[in-house]
From TrEMBL, chain B:
Gene Ontology MF, one: phenylacetyl-CoA 1,2-epoxidase activity
Key word Transcription present: no
EC number(s) stated in the UniProt entry for this protein: 1.14.13.149
InterPro entries: Aromatic_CoA_ox/epox, Ferritin-like, Ferritin-like_SF, PaaA, PaaA_PaaC
Gene this chain is encoded by: paaA
Keyword Oxidoreductase assigned: yes
Region annotation Disordered: where it falls in the sequence: 310-347
Protein name: 1,2-phenylacetyl-CoA epoxidase subunit A
Keyword entries, A-Z: Oxidoreductase
Main enzyme class: oxidoreductase
Organismal lineage: Bacteria, Bacillati, Actinomycetota, Actinomycetes, Kitasatosporales
């Protein structure tokens, strides 16, 4: 396919040398967490050029880049990052449905960020401190905790501003946390290969959310945190309708030139 | 010129102020925000910095177009970082304009109302992935050629902003070149994509240097004030001379049959630029003028409630902070463990 000559001199990979590949449950764990990061990164990047203020174009792109970095590291533990991102079918993606939800208005995006980044910070902290988790994932977690704290802080601050801002922003923020709530049930479904106390992590998550929402003059939604039939669906490769469109856009160019080097 | 006492401390005649200003400019000293400056100098800078800032943020659009379709994760990361840099350039430049007494909101309103310009190059569409490379190589390349001399601009805050910006632009230029190189050495389809993009972007990039010297409205005065250091045609020539060998190493051709080395001049001759097209695009008849400004306005209008919420919340917080000490608030916001790298808050 390529015209004989090797790809340009620039270094391509995330890591200097080929890392040891994970297998079995450990690989599944890396894929699940990597898919979460990849898909949320993609959604956040959709804001670039459309954000409510220039500072937010910068901030959302920043978070998107951090998550993309996490995804690339996790994919590199399993296989070729581009094959994993661009050549899997919809049912082979294991991200939770929360991260694939369309951006909606800024409040929807912030609600999604709040639920996810608080959970991710708790998860990376737990993984980093658990000797039972696969070593390369622990290393990534230890590195990612710091940037995830910034993501959480960003979501937290905006939740306060929107919840305790104007009447309109409060209405929109309340709507955002309600709409996204029904996709949060998967956040603490046990992940194979990561033996963590999920109910305890979830309790931590709820406490943190109650705290920030109270300060934002809001409360946790009361309805179910999962649909009637999709509870846990994302981890099993069952996604929502918008996900197919996301993949179509993301994968189209790569798939149009099989075997090409970019 | 920072040593000159502020105007209100002594009241010399305007001619004395003007003489001091001229002397400072002649001595290559920097004019700083608190220094006296002629009104026309201030107005020229505001116009130029605003146009530059607007170009950075409108310039995000044609490339951000391709973020969600980037064909590899590595390229996607590079592209997101690039577009993010451009937003950052917008921020530096609006801040530089603020030192001259105009707010970002004011300038954005003028942009949205069509009363201030941005670089016409961004009124061309990005039709294929290779356009991302062509923009990096040619458009960022032309921007660098224009902007490196601005690092020595007589107005301090603008010159300093340009130093930071130029560093990042040269990354963008190299990344664009490298993207095209990968395509050029890739499959036949990829090579064709790269050539097509260069064919479409070459002439518009030459137009980025502005009208020829004999038709340039603002050049002479700007040169005298050392805002501008080289004429449009000089910079355009420099750019052509840089690009010709680079195109050869890319294995791509430039779409100009008249392009050839002129031994006597020590420069490349090149064909006539279609200035009618340039003025049409400037007048709003480019392929994307309306689309670009619409997207800008929409983002701004859709974000109005967010910015209002942020201000309302800031007012509430300040009010709480000045209340007499009572019971501690139920919750304080978390302490960031590392500061947001890019000042991720709005006001
Ligand atoms: Fe820039
Ligand atoms: Fe740039």
């Amino acid at each position: 396919m390529t015209a004989g000559s090797p790809p340009p001199a620039a270094p391509a990979a995330t890591s200097p040398s080929e890392p040891a590949r994970l297998v079995g449950e450990d690989a599944t764990a890396a894929l699940m967490l990597g898919d979460d990061a990849l898909i949320l990164s993609h959604r956040l990047a959709e804001w670039t050029g459309h954000a409510p203020a220039l500072e937010e174009d910068v901030a959302l792109a920043n978070i998107s880049l951090d998550l993309l970095g996490q995804a690339r590291t996790l994919f590199s533990l399993v296989g070729n990052e581009d094959e994993l991102a661009f050549l899997r079918e919809e049912r082979a993606f294991h991200n939770i449905q929360l991260v694939e939800q369309p951006n909606g208005d800024f409040a929807h995006t912030i609600a999604r960020q709040l639920y996810f980044s608080v959970a991710q910070e708790i998860r990376w902290t737990a993984v980093a401190g658990s000797p039972d988790c696969p070593t390369p994932i622990r290393e990534l977690a230890a590195k990612a905790v710091k940037e995830t704290a910034y993501h959480r802080d960003h979501a937290w601050e905006w939740t306060l501003r929107l919840g305790d801002g104007t009447d309109e922003s409060r209405t929109r923020m309340r709507r955002g946390i309600e709409v996204m709530w029904r996709h949060t049930g998967e956040l603490f479904v046990p992940i194979p290969g990561l033996p963590l106390d999920e109910p305890a992590l979830r309790a931590q998550w709820l406490t943190a959310l109650e705290t920030v929402l109270a300060a934002a003059t809001l409360t946790l939604p009361e309805g179910p945190d999962a649909d009637a039939w999709t509870a846990g669906g994302g981890r099993q490769g069952v996604h929502t309708e918008s996900f197919g469109f996301l993949l179509a856009e993301m994968q189209h160019l790569h798939r149009s030139h099989p075997g090409a080097t970019w | 010129m920072t040593t000159a006492p502020p105007a209100e401390q002594r009241s010399p005649g305007p001619s004395e102020l003007e003489r001091a200003f001229d002397a400072a400019v002649a001595a290559e000293e920097r004019i700083e925000p608190r220094d006296w400056m002629p009104d026309a100098y201030r107005a020229t800078l505001v116009r130029q910095i605003a146009q530059h800032a607007h170009s950075e943020i409108i310039g995000m659009q044609p490339e951000a177009n391709w973020i969600t379709r980037a064909p590899s994760l590595r390229r996607k990361a590079i592209l997101i970082a690039k577009v993010q840099d451009e937003a950052g350039h917008g921020l530096y430049l609006y801040s530089a304009a603020e030192t001259l007494g105009v707010s970002r909101d004011e300038l954005l309103d003028k942009l949205h109302a069509g009363r201030q310009r941005y670089s016409s190059i961004f009124n061309y569409p990005t039709l294929t992935w290779a356009d991302v490379g062509a923009i990096g190589w040619l458009v960022d390349g032309a921007a660098i050629t224009n902007q490196v001399p601005l690092c020595r601009c007589s107005y301090g805050p603008y010159a300093r902003a340009m130093v930071r910006i130029c560093k990042e632009e040269s990354f963008h230029q190299r990344q664009g070149y490298e993207l095209l190189l990968a395509l050029s050495h890739g499959t036949e389809a990829q090579h064709a994509m790269a050539q097509d993009a260069v064919d479409r972007w070459w002439w518009p990039s030459l137009m980025m240097f502005g009208p020829p010297d004999d038709r340039s409205a603002h050049s002479a005065q700007s040169m005298a004030w050392k805002i501008k250091r080289h004429s449009n045609d000089e910079l355009r020539q420099r750019f052509v001379d840089i690009c010709v060998p680079q195109a050869a190493s890319l294995g791509l051709t430039l779409p100009d049959p008249d392009l050839r080395w002129n031994e006597q001049r020590g420069h490349h001759d090149f064909g006539a630029i279609d200035w009618d097209e340039f003025s049409q695009v400037l007048k709003g008849n480019g392929p994307c003028n309306e689309q670009r400004i619409d997207q800008r306005r929409r983002a701004h209008d859709d974000g109005a409630w967010v910015r209002e919420a942020a201000s309302a919340h800031a007012v509430k917080r300040r009010a709480r902070a000045t209340e007499p000490p009572g019971p501690p608030p139920a919750v304080s916001s978390p302490t960031p463990r590392h500061a947001p790298q890019n000042g991720a808050t709005t006001t």
